[in-house]
Amino acid sequence: MNHIVYMSRAVRPLSDQDLRDLLDQCRYDNARHEVTGILFYSHGNIAQLIEGAPAVIEPLYERIARDGRHSHVLQLANKPIAHRSFAEWSMAFHPLESESFRALEGFLLPHQLPPTPDSLPIADALIVDLVRQAVLGAADQSAL
Ligand SMILES: Cc1cc2nc3c(=O)[nH]c(=O)nc-3n(C[C@H](O)[C@H](O)[C@H](O)COP(=O)(O)O)c2cc1C
């Protein structure tokens, strides 16, 4: 199993409806392909970690990188991992209307994010913490 981590910029700010559509699409497709991970979004900044079989996540990453909704896609890691760090696929962002998102499966408010798992090697955990902080800001780090 491998994980891939990247950062990118939304081409235009994503509305609550855009984020909901992305959440629905990703949750459904990733569950079918046993892809897990986490996506962070705030003010047009995006970072995502995807984990799964290399034969699945490499082409998925290529598709994501070509997606017209974002640009400046920069891959930060692509390497074998011993275990998944995220049991399910989820997405963390601040919606304008939080109430309507609360019950959505796969959605987390940034302050509800679990700490980066101890099972990740230190260098990988550092990348995840860095991208999380870069996108969501230090105030939303539950570990702090
Ligand atoms: C920021 C971002 C993250 C995405 N993450 C995923 C993902 O985790 N899984 C997924 O199947 N599609 C994801 N997509 C959607 C893909 O880019 C693409 O639309 C989807 O794989 C369908 O591709 P196709 O239309 O070529 O079949 C993401 C798109 C964006 C903009």
Structure notes:
By secondary structure, the protein is of the alpha/beta class. It has one domain (2-138): Alpha-Beta Plaits (2-Layer Sandwich). The protein has three helices and six strands. It has helices spanning 16-32, 54-66, 122-136, and strands at 2-10, 36-42, 45-52, 70-80, 89-93, 107-108. It has a six-stranded mixed β-sheet with strand order 4-1-3-2-5-6, sandwiched between helices. A hairpin with a 2-residue loop joins strand 2 and strand 3 (45-52). The mean pLDDT is 92. The site of flavin mononucleotide (FMN) has 15 residues, from helix 1, strand 3 and helix 2. GO terms for molecular function: blue light photoreceptor activity; FAD binding. Residues 1-92 form the BLUF domain. It comes from Hymenobacter luteus.
Bound small molecules, by name, code or SMILES, are: flavin mononucleotide
- Helix proportion range: 25-40%
Largest sheet: 6 strands, mixed
The order of strands across the largest sheet is: 4-1-3-2-5-6
Strand content: 25-35%
The radius of gyration computed from the alpha-carbon positions, rounded to a whole number of angstroms, is 14 Å
Indicate the CATH class: Alpha Beta
Distance between the termini: 30 Å
Low-confidence stretches: none
Q: Based on the structure given, which CATH architecture is correct? A: 2-Layer Sandwich
The CATH topology assignment is Alpha-Beta Plaits
Number of domains: 1
- Spell out the helices and strands N to C: EHEEHEEEH
Number of continuous helical runs: 3
The overall average pLDDT, rounded, is 92
- The rough form would be described as globular
